[in-house]
Q: What sequence folds into this?
């Protein structure tokens, strides 16, 4: 056997072992929606074609309106019906309100003190109220 063939076989075996270990180490107490099987590194990206919305529609017919897929290593919940979306965002809206923190937002907005990059909470509400009263009021809009 050539060294290249041995390396390829070794890579396949390591990937298979890694997927077995990661599957067995997942906590079983989390209840996730139904999902198609995913590949170790690319997740379910191989199931999406040129028209991803059509692929997700086909998956929703098979697995239901709320399903779990992996886009690469990113776990993703896909909600594909308006009724389920409304229910999902009504009960879990606080989890999706804020933007994720990033290093660039720390530098651009003085430690996330601007209204755009700040986390949802009392400070954000106060900044929004101030901007509506002083910058976006009817007199200022007419002056522009």
A:
């Amino acid at each position: 056997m050539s060294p290249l063939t041995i390396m390829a076989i070794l890579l396949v075996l390591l990937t298979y072992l890694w997927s077995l270990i990661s599957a067995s180490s997942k906590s079983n107490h989390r209840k996730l929606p139904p999902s198609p099987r995913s590949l170790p590194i690319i997740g379910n990206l191989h199931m999406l074609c040129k028209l991803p919305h059509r692929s997700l529609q086909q998956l929703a017919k098979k697995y239901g309106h709320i399903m779990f897929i992996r886009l690469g290593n990113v776990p993703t919940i896909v909600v594909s019906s308006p009724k389920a979306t409304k229910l999902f965002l009504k009960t879990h809206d606080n989890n999706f309100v804020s933007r994720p923190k990033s290093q660039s937002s720390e530098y651009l907005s003085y430690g996330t003190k601007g209204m755009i990059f700040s986390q949802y909470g009392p400070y954000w509400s106060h900044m929004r109220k101030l901007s509506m009263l002083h910058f976006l009021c009817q007199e200022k809009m007419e002056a522009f």
